[in-house]
Design a protein that fits this description.
Layout (H helix, E strand, L loop, with lengths): L20 H7 L1 H9 L16 H8 L16 H4 L14 E5 L2 E4 L17 E2 L6 H5 L6 E6 L5 E4 H7 L2 E9 L22 E10 H8 L7 E6 L19 H5 L4 E6 L2 E2 L9 E3 L12 E7 L14 E3 L14 E3 L6 E6 L4 E3 L5 E8 L5 E7 L7 E2 L1 E2 L9 E7 L5 E11 L23 E7 L1
Parallel strand pairs: 4-12, 16-23
Antiparallel strand pairs: 1-2, 2-3, 4-5, 6-7, 7-9, 8-12, 9-10, 9-11, 13-14, 15-17, 17-21, 18-19, 18-22, 20-21, 22-23
Helix pairs in contact: 1-2
C-alpha cells in the first residue's frame, strides 16, 4: 500500500547536470511525477492519491493547488513548462531566437495580443539567407515571372503589379507547419517552436488568381511552384534553399495573394521584401518570400522541401518513433484548428474571488472557428467564451472570457477552440509524425491567486 502522502519523499536520484524538466517528462511523464514530486495519481490518472506529492508540487509552483484533484498525471505545470533562458532578436520586439543561420524566431504568446500583428512581433521562419537587395531595401529592376503550363508567360515589374491589377488588403494569418514541434515525444528535428510561430498581419497585394488568369492557365494544370531570391546556406548560387507550391485550386482561391505590403508598409526584409506569396491557412512555407517566379505545373511541384519528410505527415496514424517510409507521407495542406491565450501573461498574479479577464485569438486553416471554451480546473469543466467573427476569411478570431479563481492558490487557464467541422483542439499532443508538424494541442497558462 502507498505510504501516507506526508511521508512519501520524492526520488532525489541525481538527474545529471544537463537533464531538463522537459527531458524527464519526455521519457516517462508518470515516472517523472513520482521521481520529482513523489506523486501517485488516482486510478483515473488525475489528482494525488492520499495527497502523495501534492505538497512537493505546490512548493514547486509556489502556491496551493485548489483543483489538484483534477490535475492530470504526468502534466508539467504551466508555471514550470514555459520558463527558460532565451536569446532575443535585434529589431524585433521580444522575439525568441531559435536558430541564427538561417534566422528563425518565435513570439511569446502575450506579445501576440494585437488583432493585427505588428511586423516587429511577427515570427520569422527562413530556410536560406536573406537576399542583400532585401536587406538594402533595394527593389530596382525586380520582376516576377509567371510561366510554365500557361498560354501567355508574364514578366511583371513591381510597378506593373501595383498599377495594372486590382490591389486588395486582407487580414490573413500565417503559421509555420512546425509550430508546437517542441512538445512532440520522441522529439523531432527542426526548430523547436512552442506556440509563437503564428501571426495575423494586413497584407496588401494582388490576387494570385488575377495573375494566373492573365497568363492563361492551360487545361491540365495541377500545381504551382514558387521561387525566391534567398541564398542557400552553402552560398552556392546553383542550390535553391526552398521552392514549394500549392494545388491550382488554392492558388486560384481569392484570398491567396502576391503581396507587396505588410500592415501598410513595404514588407520588411525578414518577411520577404519586396514581394511574397501569402497563402493563408496553409503552412507558412507555401508563402514564398522574396518572390521572383511562379511556375504553373501539370504535375505536383517537386522543388526543394516538397518531397521526403518536409512538410509531410504519415498518411495514416503511426506509433511514436516508428520509421515511416517516404511513400507513406502526404503533403500538408490546411492547418488544424488552434487557439492562443494572449492575456494575461502566464505566471500573472490575480485576486482570489474576483473575475479575471482572459482573451486571445483562434484560427482554423481553411475553416472557421465556431466555438471557444476555457477551463480553470485542468479541463474537468469548460465554460463558453465570447467569440468574434473574423475580419475576413482566413483572419484569426478574437475571443474573450472571464474566470474566477475561488480561493487562493495555483491555477491554470486552458483554452480550446472548435472549428466549423466540429473538430476540437486536443488536451495533449496529437498524432506523432517524424518532423513534428500540426501540433494543435490546447494552450494553457499559469495564474497565482492571492
Amino acid at each position: 500500500m502507498p505510504r501516507d502522502a506526508q511521508s512519501t519523499p520524492a526520488d532525489t536520484t541525481p538527474t545529471g547536470a544537463h537533464t531538463t524538466l522537459s527531458d524527464l517528462y519526455a521519457a516517462d511523464p508518470v515516472a517523472a511525477d513520482r521521481r520529482l514530486f513523489g506523486r501517485i495519481a488516482y486510478p483515473d490518472r488525475r489528482g494525488f492519491l492520499q495527497g502523495a506529492g501534492l505538497a512537493a508540487m505546490a512548493a514547486a509552483v509556489g502556491a496551493h493547488i485548489p483543483f489538484h484533484r483534477f490535475m492530470p498525471s504526468g502534466l508539467v505545470p504551466a508555471a514550470l513548462a514555459q520558463t527558460g533562458e532565451t536569446m532575443l532578436l535585434d529589431g524585433k520586439d521580444g522575439l525568441i531566437v531559435l536558430n541564427e543561420r538561417p534566422i528563425n524566431a518565435e513570439t511569446p504568446p502575450h506579445l501576440l495580443d494585437d488583432d493585427i500583428t505588428p511586423a516587429a512581433r511577427f515570427f520569422v521562419r527562413n530556410n536560406g539567407l536573406v537576399p542583400q537587395a532585401a536587406i538594402d531595401g533595394n527593389a530596382d529592376g525586380w520582376t516576377l515571372t509567371i510561366d510554365g503550363h500557361v498560354d501567355n508567360p508574364l514578366s511583371l515589374s513591381l510597378d506593373a503589379l501595383r498599377n495594372d491589377y486590382e490591389a486588395v488588403t486582407l487580414s490573413l494569418q500565417l503559421e509555420c507547419g512546425g509550430n508546437g514541434r517542441s512538445f512532440f515525444q520522441p522529439g523531432a528535428s527542426g526548430n523547436q517552436w512552442t506556440f509563437g510561430a503564428i501571426g495575423n498581419a494586413e497584407w496588401t497585394g494582388v490576387r494570385l488568381s488575377d495573375l494566373l488568369n492573365a497568363a492563361g492557365v492551360r487545361d491540365g494544370a495541377v500545381y504551382t511552384g514558387h521561387y525566391g531570391a534567398d541564398t542557400h546556406l552553402s552560398g552556392d548560387p546553383a542550390q535553391i534553399p526552398i521552392s514549394r507550391g500549392v494545388p491550382i485550386d488554392k492558388a486560384m482561391e481569392e484570398h491567396t495573394l502576391v503581396a507587396f505590403a505588410m500592415n501598410g508598409q513595404d514588407i520588411p526584409p525578414l518577411h520577404g521584401f519586396p514581394l511574397r506569396v501569402v497563402a493563408p491557412g496553409w503552412p507558412g512555407s507555401c508563402s514564398q518570400k522574396w518572390l521572383t517566379r511562379i511556375e504553373v505545373r501539370d504535375v505536383v511541384h517537386d522543388g526543394p522541401k516538397m518531397g521526403g519528410y518536409s512538410y509531410r505527415v504519415p498518411r495514416t496514424p503511426v506509433a511514436p518513433g516508428v520509421e515511416v517510409p517516404e511513400e507513406d507521407m502526404v503533403i500538408i495542406e490546411s492547418m488544424p484548428v488552434k487557439s492562443l491565450i494572449t492575456a494575461p501573461q502566464t505566471g500573472a498574479p490575480v485576486i482570489a474571488g474576483e473575475a479575471l479577464a482572459v482573451r486571445g485569438h483562434a484560427w482554423a486553416g481553411d475553416n472557421a472557428v465556431t466555438a471557444m471554451h476555457v477551463s480553470l480546473d485542468f479541463g474537468q469543466t469548460w465554460q463558453e467564451a465570447e467569440l468574434d467573427a473574423p475580419a475576413n476569411r482566413f483572419a484569426w478570431q478574437r475571443w474573450r472570457a472571464a474566470v474566477t479563481p475561488p480561493t487562493e492558490g495555483y491555477y491554470e487557464v486552458w483554452a480550446r477552440a472548435t472549428d466549423d467541422a466540429g473538430r476540437q483542439q486536443p488536451a495533449d499532443v496529437p498524432g506523432w509524425n517524424p518532423r513534428g508538424y500540426l501540433n494543435n494541442m490546447i494552450h494553457r497558462i499559469a495564474v497565482f491567486a492571492a
